[in-house]
Specification:
By secondary structure, the chain is an alpha/beta fold. Helices cover 31% and strands 18% of the residues.
Length: 479
């Protein structure tokens, strides 16, 4: 159903030649794999109103070497309490980018970057490991739709943000354009409305197929009406009108888990995030929950764990199944109830320590210009981070060898191999021998032909803090 977006992603991931650490010593001008592209729609607000967008923005920028930040678009959402988004709030983006710039000399040391690309190249394609300049990020910060609701869409709702989304999609680039929605997606809806109005059905379909959307709940509606007036929202219009052509993820689990677990562990944020570098000094204390918008870009981070265009694979951004949404009218990938919510919550809790340690280590780099880096995972001599697919006869054994994996800082490594049954289609038990060593053996069941088995290799170093990298192996048994 969403095959074009998946194929676009696979074209990108096929280029990947290094691990999540991005620390092989190659410089910014070297031949690195391309980053995934992402646009942020944020209703970022002052800390006394709601600080979580600012918190997520800080975490995003200390991962700016991992994703190509195509645009930071300030627009309406719950934070503006149903009124027009206050234009002055956009100044918070400048504050965060300025702090990032002050920490940038230290952050660049993580991938041994010494120079910035030319303006033309920085506006072109960026590769994993490249830290963008503040000039680039400031040029990509803009306003989107200020008001909420589907009825706002039309001739008078164009904005710099909606026009820029169209421009980004129209670029000759095989990578899908991810839209991470931290507030309302009215700006995106306006872009789609305009393309639908001005182009043919085939051109619209091509446009939609290049988009992948991850929304943190549905915020194109006033807070007080959030569970009672879905028809007000442009989100419902996009889900219903373009169900077959637009990959749309509607998260109702990961953001709640992140808020809750983060709040329960606030002392860790106070000790290891706040006051770490200039970004840490402006990292605000939570008010309701911590970083509720962060799962939207964690889902896209290229860490070897998941293909983000396959929402049921489970990654740092949650687990999703295709089905009827909370509005009981439209279909999308979601996790608001039942098995999907339980699975998502289970893995969000499981991955949380590794996710937080990754953040803390990067904040350490922002402050000190040194610190821990992620292990490099090599499976059966495969040095990429793309998903490995292996065909094997049912009833046989598959040896998976990660002994060539290493740590760029010389730390000791521990290995853990485990099955992720929720992502596969085989429902029986699967045995992994030597699953706590660098070389494991998977016993392929004798009745597994035509099914898929998802094996995760998890490698953790003993640095401070401990950092984890992953590789996913999909076994496809045959008769």
């Amino acid at each position: 159903m969403k095959t074009k977006c998946t194929l676009l992603f696979m074209l990108v991931i096929a280029l990947v030649q290094l691990s999540f650490a991005s620390s092989s010593g190659k410089k910014a001008s070297g031949s690195m794999p391309l980053k995934p592209r992402i646009v942020i729609l944020t209703d970022i607000a002052p800390g006394d109103i709601e600080p979580d967008d600012m918190e997520s923005m800080i975490r995003l920028l200390v991962h700016a070497d991992q994703v190509e930040i195509e645009a930071l678009i300030a627009s309406g959402g719950w934070n503006s309490s149903g009124r027009a988004y206050p234009v002055s709030w956009m100044n918070i983006l400048d504050t965060v980018i300025t702090a990032y710039g002050e920490d940038l000399p230290n952050l660049m040391k993580r991938s041994e970057q010494r120079v910035f690309l030319s303006v033309a190249k920085e506006n072109g394609q960026q590769r994993i490991g490249y830290w963008p300049s503040t000039d680039y990020l400031k040029s990509r910060a803009m306003l989107g739709s200020l008001n909420l609701g589907y009825e706002e869409i039309g001739e008078k709702n164009d904005s710099p943000g909606s026009d820029f989304i169209i421009k980004l999609v129209d670029q000759e680039d095989a990578r899908p354009l991810w839209i991470a929605v931290w507030g309302g997606a009215n700006t995106l809806a306006q872009a789609i409305w305009k393309v639908k109005k001005e182009r043919s059905k085939e051109e619209l379909k091509t446009f939609l197929n290049k988009l992948c959307v991850y929304t943190i709940t549905d915020q194109d509606v006033p807070w007080a009406e959030r569970h009672s007036n879905y028809s007000f929202s442009s989100h419902q219009w996009m889900r219903g009108e373009f169900e077959k052509d637009l990959l749309f993820i509607w998260d109702e689990s990961a953001w709640l888990s992140q808020c809750e677990i983060g709040a329960k562990n606030w002392s860790e944020y106070a000790a290891k995030i706040q006051n770490q570098g200039n970004l840490g000094r402006i990292y605000p204390k939570y008010k309701y929950g911590v970083e509720g918008d962060t799962p939207s870009f964690l889902h896209v981070i290229p860490n070897g764990l998941n293909d983000p265009t396959m929402p049921n694979q489970v990654g740092w951004g949650g687990y999703f199944e295709w089905g009827l949404g909370m509005d009981k009218e439209t279909y999308s990938y979601t996790n608001y109830a039942g098995k999907a919510k339980d699975i998502s919550a289970k893995y969000e809790a499981y991955f949380y320590p590794a996710i937080f340690n990754n953040f803390a280590a990067r904040m350490g780099w922002a402050k000190e210009g040194k610190g821990n880096r992620n292990p490099i995972v090599i499976i059966n001599k495969n040095k990429n981070i793309d998903i490995i697919k292996i065909s094997s006869k049912q009833g046989t054994r598959i040896v998976l060898d990660a002994s060539k994996s290493y740590d760029p800082d010389g730390d000791q490594l521990t290995f853990k191999w485990w099955m992720m049954p929720e992502a596969g289609t085989y429902e029986g038990d699967i045995t992994i021998q030597n699953k706590m060593t660098s070389r494991a053996t998977v016993l392929v069941p004798s009745d597994a032909a035509g099914k898929t088995l998802h094996v995760i290799c998890e490698v953790t170093d003993n640095g401070t803090p401990h950092l984890t990298s992953y590789r996913r192996i999909i076994v496809q048994p045959i008769k």
